[in-house]
């Protein structure tokens, strides 16, 4: 089967909800990363076979197939198509899977996969509005929100509020260290944003990390979903705005264009999980992708498991038997934010650059998804 490689990946800095990117339309923001990808590689836009973007809240400015509109805004020729997909928080990771499958099968040579989300301009659930789940669904499964699912997970795995807050505090610490050490500089494309005073500035630093996010400070926050529970705004991911994308192609095409790939796609998996607990999917998705790759967790040099809520990576560590020092070493969504549709390729870009920076060989990415699903991806750095 054709070897699939990633030549380049970029992302915007992540803005807080109602923050630095709040004045930017999602389609225009996605166009920024699409344009930057081809600029960095010198690939002719006309040679791109497809643009696949993830976006969860497909309403308003994010409706109408944002992948297509963003590609047109970015100056891609009209013959380059675009398609928008929704696999909840793993949408852009699934975009990478679809893109790599198209290339591996020989259907396509060059595909851009990515995602975008403005949780400011198109708030969560604005696409659902007042709709309720089907009674035929609720007759079979207990359908609850992710906050309550998180409380169930915390109880099932006997985690404490202190453990969640400790993990969350460390996420902020790691994120600040990563920013200070320039770990994200290479992957971030500057976005010109207009300030309230009318001035324009180049937005290049993730807006989410908060100074003083100590265990003591986080411990004072009120719980959100259960008065006697553990989940707070401090140990859950932040609502955010952002865009990200990667450029995939066959190894043969990369060689023909004289491009040096960064990583190759080793294995992919996707799985369903309990729709009530909802957020446990990364456990089985990881086991499944390791089996496909013929690897053990100990052979993976670094992993990104999305911090939708603090218990998700903590439970994943317990069940997979992974090394906590290899997990989200640059911080995660609790500190850096979670622009839903963009998170998959955002984390993938960070993972790729970390392998390049540290000289590691294998990286693993897994993301839990609404209604009980998860994707997992293993990449290998190319020498």
From TrEMBL:
<dbReference type="InterPro" id="IPR020613">
    <property type="entry name" value="Thiolase_CS"/>
</dbReference>
<keyword id="KW-0808">Transferase</keyword>
<feature type="domain" description="Thiolase C-terminal">
    <location>
        <begin position="259"/>
        <end position="381"/>
    </location>
</feature>
<feature type="active site" description="Proton acceptor">
    <location>
        <position position="338"/>
    </location>
</feature>
<dbReference type="Pfam" id="PF02803">
    <property type="entry name" value="Thiolase_C"/>
</dbReference>
<dbReference type="InterPro" id="IPR020617">
    <property type="entry name" value="Thiolase_C"/>
</dbReference>
<dbReference type="InterPro" id="IPR020616">
    <property type="entry name" value="Thiolase_N"/>
</dbReference>
<protein>
    <submittedName>
        <fullName>Acetyl-CoA acetyltransferase</fullName>
    </submittedName>
</protein>
<feature type="active site" description="Acyl-thioester intermediate">
    <location>
        <position position="89"/>
    </location>
</feature>
<dbReference type="GO" id="GO:0003988">
    <property type="term" value="F:acetyl-CoA C-acyltransferase activity"/>
</dbReference>
<feature type="active site" description="Proton acceptor">
    <location>
        <position position="368"/>
    </location>
</feature>
<dbReference type="InterPro" id="IPR002155">
    <property type="entry name" value="Thiolase"/>
</dbReference>
<dbReference type="InterPro" id="IPR020610">
    <property type="entry name" value="Thiolase_AS"/>
</dbReference>
<feature type="domain" description="Thiolase N-terminal">
    <location>
        <begin position="4"/>
        <end position="252"/>
    </location>
</feature>
<keyword id="KW-0012">Acyltransferase</keyword>
<dbReference type="Pfam" id="PF00108">
    <property type="entry name" value="Thiolase_N"/>
</dbReference>
<comment type="similarity">
    <text>Belongs to the thiolase-like superfamily. Thiolase family.</text>
</comment>
<dbReference type="InterPro" id="IPR016039">
    <property type="entry name" value="Thiolase-like"/>
</dbReference>
